[in-house]
Design brief:
Elements: H1 2-14, E1 25-29, E2 32-36, E3 38-39, H2 42-52, E4 60-63, E5 66-67, E6 73-76, E7 82-85
Parallel strand pairs: 2-4, 3-5
Antiparallel strand pairs: 1-2, 6-7
Length: about 90
């Protein structure tokens, strides 16, 4: 049932209230569930791992998710001046 374990893990991420986790890719082999993708924070990376760690049949999670914070962008404030938005 290796394919079923990966699909079960993916289903848990899909059901998460954190929408960003829905794009995480799960692959399962020999007791190891590998997570891949990109997320905007280390918190969400940890949440992805916490969401799938209890899936039956998973001995270990290899969390290979990259954390990429959104690029800084410039916004115009109410006063018409520019400021950096992080």
């Amino acid at each position: 049932m290796p394919d079923g374990i990966g699909e079960l893990a993916r289903g848990r991420l899909q059901a998460s209230p954190y929408f960003a986790l829905r794009d995480v890719i799960c692959t399962y082999r020999d007791g190891i569930l590998t997570l891949r993708g990109r997320l905007p924070s280390y918190y969400l990376k940890q949440m992805a791992q916490s969401t799938v760690i209890a899936v039956e049949g998973v001995a270990r999670v290899a969390n290979q998710i990259e954390v990429r914070t959104p690029a800084r962008r410039e916004v115009v404030g109410r006063e018409g001046g520019r400021r950096q938005w992080s």
